[in-house]
Design brief:
Helices cover 55% and strands 11% of the residues. With 204 residues, it is α/β, with parallel strands linked by helices. The protein has a 5-stranded parallel beta sheet, sandwiched between helices. Strand 3, helix 5 and strand 4 form a beta-alpha-beta unit. The termini are far apart.
């Protein structure tokens, strides 16, 4: 019985500590983002014919979410795998398009070849990173700075808090682009007829 009570308390501590860590991160993270850089990112994303997003690991998974967010407001976008990018997938991008990279440390080597392709093709580059002195950041047109206090696991090594913070930046970008482009819910209703959301949007 005592063992069961101890385990329940331990589980409660894991939950509370995780929420506390990520709450602290989000509370401070928005303060480090340069508002002018964010505004420039919104402007070019709003005008781009095509948008690419790339990262590795958790950052890559977050970038897939970003591409979907853009498609949901009819900004044509796709996730470009760093591995596939050097085997032809970078052909998706044309001059004047926008490529978004996510790398907490700014040193993800798999992204460097795609960065060079973007530079050669005249593709605008946005980099989201904690390290604004990194090679990726220095090669970007726009840098959105991250703040991550620590990851939620005991070893501070899993991409948990950093992924949450990245996704919140993406959500802020989408919210701003909706206003910038005057995107209407009626437009979203047309492309989202499925599920409970589709039923609600199309009920009228």
């Amino acid at each position: 019985m005592d063992r069961e009570i101890t385990d329940k308390k331990s589980m409660r501590n894991y939950i509370r500590e995780t929420f506390k860590i990520e709450e602290e991160c989000l509370h401070k993270a928005w303060e480090v983002i340069d508002e002018k850089e964010f505004e420039k990112a919104v402007e070019i994303l709003s005008k781009a014919e095509r948008i690419g997003a790339s990262g590795c690991g958790h950052s890559g998974i977050a970038c897939q979410h970003f591409a979907h967010l853009m498609c949901c407001i009819e900004r044509p976008a796709r996730f470009i795998s760093p591995a596939e990018a050097v085997h032809g997938a970078s052909g998706f991008l044309k001059k004047g398009d926008v490529m978004l990279f996510v790398s907490r440390g700014g040193k993800t080597k798999e992204l460097f070849p795609l960065m060079e392709i973007c530079r050669a093709k005249g593709v605008m580059v946005i980099v989201i990173t904690e390290n604004t002195d990194s090679l990726l950041a220095k090669g970007a047109d726009i840098v959105l700075k991250q703040y991550i206090n620590r990851e939620t696991d005991r070893y501070n090594s899993q991409g948990t808090t950093s992924m949450t913070e990245t996704i919140v930046i993406f959500h802020a970008l989408q919210a701003a682009i909706i206003d910038q482009t005057d995107y209407r819910n009626e437009q979203f209703a047309l492309i989202h007829p499925g599920g409970a959301v589709g039923e609600r949007l199309n009920s009228k």
